[in-house]
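Quick illustration, no need to memorize.
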Amino acid sequence: MVGAVKQKPAAQRLVYLNGRFVPEQEARISIFDSALMYGDMVFEMTRTFRREPFLLDRHLDRLYDSIRYARIECGLSQAQMLAATHQTIERNREALGDYDFQIMHNVTRGGMALYAELVREGTAPVVTINVIPLIRHVGGSADAYERGAHFVTTTQRSVPARYIDPKAKNRSRIYYKLAELEAARIEPGAMALLTDERGFITEGTGNNFFLVRDGEVLTPKPHDILRGVSRGYCMELARAAGIPVHEMDVEPYDVRQASEAWYTSTSIAMVPVTRFNGGPVGSGAPGPIYRRLLSAWSTSVGVDIPAQAKQYAGLAADWRP
């Protein structure tokens, strides 16, 4: 299911930048762009399996929901964005070789009018699409498929949807970074798990959370979270396997009582959570429902996901993006 990986090809990757293709290291936006001045950007990251985009339509649906939320007139219809995405992939096939890769869409409002004379690109919205092999993203998680992650709840909470709707995937995410820094102070390598104003669990910093109780899958309600594409796919796999899934208020107490837990994210699919706030989750090892769903995911995409991660881990040390 995971074929031999060739050495990185010599061809240079290109980035789609407002209708042009430019070398990756020359793809730049102004320091006066609204993205830098305000964090005023929406984005999506999609990955491939067997070098073909996985659930790209769902990612673009969410991207355009985010674009409408941010009121950015990006100049491309969703159909045109899809065509530009496939064009970007095809222009980079040689440079990407046999690796699976990420597809990153960034849409910024553009240069601020106050600094218009200083912005070479003008003040119109900026759309970029880039692709890069997932060697580091996936390889860096190789051990976690068996060891599991340690999640800790942080004093940094999620931003309520009435302020910034987390269902719009945006770059105004300093609260994620503060939570990550706090988790690292608690224990090096620990990952942050955020809560809402009432103390209910919301999400990780770029991932969605699941647990198992009495043979049923529980996951936080979709209000104050990013409704992850991988989250939705995991729920579909569970239901197809006849496993009940409930979106509900989840407390830290529920995690302590859980038999198993995991998180989902685009690049890694799903990784077990084996420790929570310093104690074990269930037996402290990946659980049977987690393994069953990860196996189903691997089968559905034709890639042994943990095996690919191990393979990429062997390349990561010498990998130069």
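Residues 144-314 form a domain with the D-amino Acid Aminotransferase; Chain A, domain 2 fold (CATH 3.20.10.10).
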